[in-house]
From TrEMBL:
Annotated membrane topology: Multi-pass membrane protein
Location (main, coarse): membrane
Annotated Gene3D superfamilies: TspO/MBR protein
Organism: Natrinema saccharevitans
Pfam families assigned: TspO_MBR
Biological-process GO terms, alphabetical: tetrapyrrole metabolic process
Keyword Transmembrane in record: yes
Protein name according to UniProt: TspO protein
InterPro entries given in the database record: TspO/MBR-related_sf, TspO_MBR
């Protein structure tokens, strides 16, 4: 019987397919909340937005890119047999859970302050995931840095929307 570490090492062609599969899986999970909540509501359209609010098209483009990077990073960690792999995978799942919860909290519950609390926890979990990934695969950690930058921006955006409409 093959060890799990050997089973994770696939031939080159299948390895690329596995990476693509991880990217698709993370993208599907990340996009799932948009099925129940979206910014296309009268409530959200009526909110005052800060001057730096990006064009609407930026969100699906940025999130698709970020989820792809997250999927590849997750694949790199998953296929590793380095110490700390299980902790890194657990950290990824935890941060992804908070990522998924933010959208319904903000848009469906119409609760920017609750969403702000969630995104602050998310930011902390993403930073922790980067540290955990770095112990397993530096490339995987580097792939999460743009995500942390976007979550930082989204946190400021969430704070300003709450502040302007409180």
């Amino acid at each position: 019987m093959e060890s799990p570490a050997i089973a994770r090492r696939l031939p080159a062609g299948r390895s690329v397919l596995a990476a693509v599969g991880f990217a698709l899986l993370v993208t599907l999970v990340g996009a799932a909340p948009s099925a129940v909540a979206s910014p296309d509501t009268p409530w959200f359209r009526a909110l005052e937005k800060p001057w730096f609010y990006p064009p609407t098209i930026a969100f699906p483009v940025v999130w698709t890119l970020l989820f792809t990077l997250l999927g590849v990073a997750l694949w790199l960690v998953w296929r590793s047999d380095a110490d700390g792999r299980r902790l890194a995978l657990g950290a990824f799942v935890a941060q992804m859970a908070f990522n998924v919860v933010w959208t319904p909290a903000f848009f469906a519950l119409e609760a920017p302050l609750v969403a702000l609390g969630i995104i602050v926890v998310l930011w902390t979990l993403v930073a922790g995931t980067i540290v955990a990934f770095r112990r397993v695969d530096r490339r995987a950690a580097a792939l999460l840095v743009p995500y942390l930058a976007w979550v930082t921006f989204a946190t400021v955006l969430n704070l300003e929307i709450w502040r302007l409409n409180a």
